[in-house]
Amino acid sequence: MPSSEHAILVELFRARPSLATALLRHCGHPIPSDLTAEISESTFPVSIADTHADAVVLLRGAEAKLRLVVVVEVQLAIDGDKPHRWLTYHVAAEQRYASTAVVLVVAPDARVARWARKPHPVGPRGSFAPLVLGPDEVPRIADLADDERSVELTVLSLLAHRDADRATLRAATVALAAEESDRASLYFDLLLATFGQALTRAVEDLMVNGEPLSEWAKAHYRQGKEEGKTEGKIEGKAEGKIEGEAAGKAAGKAESVLAILSARALTFSPEEQRTIVGNTDPALLDRWIARALTVRSVAELLSES
Fold first, then answer.
1. Which residue, 221, 160, 144, is CA-closest to 185?
2. Rounded to an integer, what distance in angstroms lies between the CA atom of residue 72 and that of residue 274?
3. pLDDT tens per residue across span 129-159
4. What is the tens place of the pLDDT at every residue in 258-276?
5. Which one-letter DSSP state was computed for residue 62?
6. In the prediction, which pLDDT does 196 show?
7. In 19-161, beta strands by DSSP E
């Protein structure tokens, strides 16, 4: 059964077929600039049983002439049966479309990428190897040209390199918030599961710095907090470091309340700050996080206790 990460990575290519073109170019594969990309049916009929690839992208040139078929396979773990299946995809694609084909294996894990690159024996003298995109081949966000910075390539780059620095996650959050779609929701959830506290801190930074975020981004931020996605012990603004996992989560929620209030230019007295930071009721803190986005004053917020 494919994992949710696998399904979302496949969706990157289904949502933006040109992602395959951009990645092939980064691998040094000569792709003419005049080709357009489109998604195609990804089930190949073979003599034994139909076999289903993750995605198939057709690259067409002038007058819609087919120039290249790209069979995209997302590979998250080592699987000894896959190389033979990739060869089947390659042959089936060339037969179906009467065109040159390439199997593009996307392996965000470096160990899996090294395994996928090994030539697979075919007959007594032959071998087959797909084109593999591992962390070394997937460009970092900072290295992308402006016209390459799609949301999908941003997500893939983050997952391949695990870039958890705050500036990179802030940029990714802004890009996802601008997209504001069902797909963006899936991408955000995957990044939240991968980066946890680091991503929520990046969202808090945006709020504190007064950068605009859509209601979609705020809703996902609140959801991440409510589901307890933050991990470990978080040091609050109050006196010292609160020990214990439950207390640490409460301190993190209190920090979020203060960050949102500050971003909205709502001032609070030292006593109000102590009240917020000293609260250890997670349910009440969750309600404060949600209401901090809409209340007119800190007093109004604290009226719910």
1. 221
2. 54
3. 899 988 888 888 777 776 677 788 888 888 8
4. 767 766 677 888 788 888 8
5. G
6. 77
7. 36-40, 43-44, 51-52, 55-60, 66-74, 101-106, 120-122, 126-128, 131-133
Among the listed residues 72, 168, 90, 80, the one whose alpha carbon sits nearest the alpha carbon of residue 129: 90
- Sequence spans of domains, the chain: 4-133, 163-302
Dist. CA 172–CA 203, nearest whole Å: 10
Q: What is this structure's pTM? A: 0.60
Largest CA distance in the chain: 80
In whole angstroms, give the CA distance from residue 294 to residue 287: 12
User: How far is the C-alpha of 16 from the C-alpha of 163, rounded, in Å?
Assistant: 22
Handedness of CA 10, 12, 17, 18 (dihedral sign): negative
Close Cβ partners of 291 (under 8 Å, ≥ 6 residues apart): 301, 304
Please state the rounded mean pLDDT for residues 87-104: 91
pLDDT of res. 225: 52
Amino acid at position 286, single letter: D
